[in-house]
Structures are given as structure tokens and as C-alpha cells.
């Protein structure tokens, strides 16, 4: 374990030596906030150079907590942990591969997709013609999925607010000059969207809105230092 804020990359070789010299199957490199978990998934008894899981305690996700629970003493099962680690490793590599292909599709990826949707002969010209089409389709697919999840979260948030206060409590005008401030539907939409986005991190009741002439603010704990 290193001091918080340490450059963990600089200490990887030390953990590698420890891992090789013991019978351990899990190695952990941490500064107290960031945790990197290693195993020997590629070659037995040789620690992998890349972690199978990385966790930031300041931004702990639900899935992180689930995976950490597998490592607790009360439920520890090495075989299950290694199986889960392998799944996370390949899942991470698959996401990196897809992200790179979506951003700039390779000839092989384009050919694979074109082969599913195009009846003609696949030549180099056909690949070049379809490359931007496939890149655009991939980006649209990701955007659509994000919009869908956001819409579902927003609807869930609205449903929970049904029967309660349907509009946020807004700050009173700072001066008589701001008596004519009117909260728009777009501003309210933004408020509810933000609440839906952060609901997995903080209690939605901590998210407040301030509407004055110069801005519509969405704040944590109604504190203008926490936009």
C-alpha cells in the first residue's frame, strides 16, 4: 500500500516480485483511494501486467461493491473470484476493442459488418464506401442506448416524485429586479435529468435548483460552491 496520491505505476514491479515469490493468486496495489487488482490469468504464477479490476473509492459503483464482496473473508471462493476476474478482463478488452472500432472501423470490422448487410462483392472500394456509414451507425446506436437509459431513469425519477412536490424548491429572487424570473420547462427538464443522472451517487433530495435572472443553477446541498 502506497501513500494516497502516489503514482501506482511506479510500484507495479514491486508487487510483481511479491506475487512471483508467493503462492498468492490475487495482488492488490493501492494508495488507499485507488485499488488495482491483479492475478495470473494469462500465464500461471506470473502476475498479469494489467489489472482485472480497478476501483476508485471516491466513485464507488454498485458493480464495484458486488465484485469487492467476492473478496470478503466471509464469502471468499478463489475459484469464483478467478472466474469473475477472467470475465472482467475479457469484458474490458472487448469494450476497448469495440470503442476503437466504433471510433475508426478497421477493414476487418467493416468487412464483417458489410458481409451481413450487403449482397454484392466486397471490394476495397466497397469497404471505403461503407466505413463512414458503419462508424456513423455505431455512434448513433451508442447515443440511442444512452438516451434510452436516461429516459428510463428520468421517468423513474418523475414517478417517485408523483404525489410529492412536482417542481423543485427554487431560491427566492435576490432583489426586486428579479421578481420577473420565470422557470422554463427546459430548465425543469434539465433539473430532473441531472437528478436522474446522479441518483446512483447521491440522494436525489440533496439536489436543489436556483433560478435567478442570470442563471438557472443545479446545486448539491443547495450550496453554490457545489454546482
Explain this structure to me?
The chain has about 230 residues and is mainly α. It is built from six helices and five strands, in the order H-E-E-E-H-H-H-H-H-E-E. The strands form two sheets. Strands 1-2-3 form a three-stranded antiparallel sheet. Strands 4-5 form a two-stranded antiparallel ribbon. Strand 1 and strand 2 form a beta hairpin. Helix 4 packs across helix 5 (about 125-160) and helix 5 crosses helix 6. Residues about 175 have low confidence and may be disordered.
Q: Which key features would you list for this structure?
A:
mainly alpha; 6 helices; flat; 227 residues
Q: Round the mean pLDDT to the nearest integer and report it.
A: 81
Tell me the strand order in the biggest sheet. 1-2-3
Strand segment tally: 5
Q: What is the share of helical residues?
A: 40-55%
| Major sheet details | 3 strands, antiparallel
What are the low-pLDDT stretches, counting only 5+ consecutive residues below 50? 173-177
Order of helices and strands: HEEEHHHHHEE
The rounded distance between the terminal residues' Cα atoms is 34 Å
Name the structural class: mainly alpha
Q: What gyration radius follows from the Cα positions, in whole Å? A: 25 Å
Globular, elongated, flat, extended or rod-shaped: what is the shape? flat
Number of helices: 6
Amino acid at each position: 500500500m502506497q501513500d494516497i496520491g502516489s503514482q501506482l505505476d511506479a510500484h507495479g514491479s514491486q508487487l510483481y516480485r511479491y506475487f512471483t515469490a508467493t503462492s498468492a493468486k490475487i495482488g492488490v496495489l493501492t494508495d488507499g483511494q485507488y485499488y488495482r487488482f491483479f492475478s495470473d490469468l494469462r500465464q500461471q504464477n506470473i502476475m498479469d501486467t494489467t489489472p482485472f479490476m480497478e476501483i476508485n473509492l471516491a466513485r464507488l459503483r454498485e458493480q464495484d461493491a458486488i465484485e469487492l464482496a467476492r473478496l470478503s473473508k466471509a464469502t471468499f471462493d478463489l475459484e469464483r473470484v478467478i472466474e469473475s476476474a477472467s470475465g472482467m478482463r475479457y469484458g474490458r478488452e472487448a469494450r476497448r476493442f469495440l470503442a476503437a472500432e466504433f471510433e475508426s472501423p478497421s477493414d476487418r470490422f467493416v468487412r464483417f459488418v458489410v458481409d451481413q448487410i450487403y449482397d454484392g462483392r466486397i471490394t476495397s472500394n466497397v469497404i471505403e464506401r461503407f466505413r463512414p456509414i458503419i462508424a456513423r451507425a455505431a455512434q448513433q446506436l451508442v447515443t440511442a442506448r444512452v438516451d434510452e437509459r436516461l429516459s428510463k431513469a428520468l421517468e423513474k425519477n418523475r414517478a417517485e416524485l408523483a404525489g410529492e412536490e412536482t417542481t423543485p424548491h427554487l431560491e427566492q429572487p435576490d432583489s426586486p429586479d428579479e421578481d420577473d424570473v420565470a422557470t422554463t420547462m427546459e430548465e425543469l427538464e434539465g433539473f430532473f435529468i441531472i437528478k436522474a443522472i446522479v441518483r446512483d451517487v447521491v440522494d436525489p433530495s440533496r439536489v436543489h435548483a436556483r433560478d435567478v435572472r442570470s442563471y438557472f443553477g443545479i446545486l448539491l446541498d443547495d450550496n453554490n460552491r457545489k454546482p
